[in-house]
């Protein structure tokens, strides 16, 4: 290998065989997978999908050599880890990458370092890949298995989210669980494959190729387990079904086995190993507490105390968090495809400050025809991972009528249910094409019903005005919004808008 990583050594992913053709000759002999329990008549939760398989590539080689839009680097919290993947990426990317990582570590770019489960992005510099997505996998201990699973899932999910937000066409994954972090390869591969599979089921149109770059040691595991999540035929699907683990995650691949949903408290007892416990606290401090509701006292008694005004602020917050987590669990469990098909809520680009932009299309909400409780669940389902950082909402009020207006009772219920992150990290709500009536309603609602929101609402009369806060190329809006704006405000050099 050329130590300078000459372009001639980079690998064009379009020349690599897809998963459907990988060892395809084995399928004629009923697959290399062992069969348990004989013939299976029911369909797998990961059914045969040729369109999804066409996006998957399993490749034995160095992820640093791939010419994907982005490749993945596995590192530590200070982004200084020295492992075979990170060292190869550093060598091929050149010294500019090291400078950029030092800025990340110092907090000069985005935020300091990278916490476990998070992802940070830099340029690819001398790589064939345009970007590098850096992530930190968890340190594994069997007694903290649930926390580790959640962290590793977050790594893969956040990387895919980056790819979606940045309109990347391809991503090259290394195996995120490094040897020094001790994550069992088989367990980690289950999480990696099912998370990618679920993402492609929901957002498949946003990615053309996903490459799993593996070593000689890792390839047999991936080769054996890929058919479980990406079966290449109906026969392989049937043969793979009995081999799936009990925990196959929720609709997005996130671990949800109830008996594993435990809370990691800060030093609940004397730690067996102080140094390890401190590191694990840093890794897993974000684990939720909803499964421990039954351990925090009599719920009915707490409700009585709330009514009597005798419950402490901390207890009130715990009660509220438990309530939100119950709604979140419902949102993840229910089929919300009918609400999703309305395309009334979606993530678009970022504003001038780099904050995520969420769009709401009022005319796409047929209030009188849909189950509004399911709409509330869908909002929570979509927004839960968005609100962990600063975000803004653009509400298109364009051409709405009385059948599209969300009443104040619904909005008050939504405000009462969502947790503090929604309100704290919402930095602006742009109300596009307001009417006089909607301005009055908004003022009344933010003044007398929900506190802390009034100063964040900005009424925007034209798209040109909106573009001063959000670059035009960062906003996807329905064609009727553009047509209305041109009709009412005159022609402006607007970007083209995809049909939503």
From TrEMBL:
It holds the Pfam family CRAL_TRIO_2. It comes from the Eukaryota. Gene3D superfamilies: CRAL-TRIO lipid binding domain, Leucine Aminopeptidase, subunit E, domain 1. Residues 43-230 form the Macro domain. CDD domains: Macro_GDAP2-like, SEC14. Belongs to the GDAP2 family. This is Ganglioside-induced differentiation-associated protein 2 isoform X1. It comes from Pantherophis guttatus (Corn snake). The gene is GDAP2.
